[in-house]
Task: inverse folding
C-alpha cells in the first residue's frame, strides 16, 4: 500500500523529517490544532515505530493521549506487554511512563496524539525499540 492508498479521515501530512532521528522507518505528521493543547495526526508506514520515550510534566501536564484512527499498530509501556491498537482504541500514557508506539510490521497506522497541558511539560527521547523484540510481535491478523 502507498501513502496515497492509506484510507484515513485526517490528512497524512508531510514526512516527519524534523523527528526522523527518533523513528525507525517513515512517519508523517499533520498538525490539526494549535494552542494550549496542540493535536497532531501521526501516520506510520508498515514497520515504522518511534523510539522509547518519556513525556514529563507537573500540575496535571505531561500525560499523552493516543487515539487510533486508522490501520493497526502497537503501544507498549516499559515492563508491560504490547497492546494492539485498532481504530477506536484510546490509550492514556501517564506522565513519566517510558513507552513507544508505531505500526505493525504489515500495516499502516495512524493516531491522533496530544499532551495534557500543565507545567514543566517536556519529552525525553531514548533508545530505539529493539528490532528482535519488535519482530516477535504478531503481524496484523495473526493473533494481533
Result:
Amino acid at each position: 500500500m502507498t501513502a496515497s492508498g492509506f484510507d484515513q479521515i485526517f490528512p497524512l501530512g508531510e514526512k516527519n523529517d524534523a523527528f526522523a532521528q527518533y523513528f525507525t522507518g517513515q512517519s508523517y505528521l499533520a498538525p490539526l490544532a494549535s494552542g494550549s493543547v496542540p493535536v497532531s495526526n501521526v501516520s506510520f508506514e508498515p514497520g515504522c515505530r518511534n523510539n522509547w520515550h518519556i513525556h514529563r510534566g507537573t500540575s496535571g501536564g505531561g500525560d499523552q493521549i493516543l487515539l487510533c484512527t486508522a490501520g493497526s499498530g502497537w503501544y507498549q509501556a516499559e515492563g508491560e506487554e504490547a497492546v494492539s491498537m485498532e481504530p477506536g482504541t484510546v490509550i492514556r500514557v501517564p506522565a513519566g511512563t517510558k513507552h513507544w508506539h508505531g505500526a505493525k510490521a504489515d500495516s499502516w497506522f495512524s493516531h491522533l496524539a496530544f499532551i495534557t497541558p500543565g507545567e514543566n511539560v517536556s519529552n525525553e527521547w531514548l533508545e530505539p525499540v529493539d528490532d528482535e523484540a519488535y519482530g516477535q510481535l504478531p503481524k496484523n491478523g495473526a493473533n494481533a
Q: What stands out?
A: The mean pLDDT is 93.
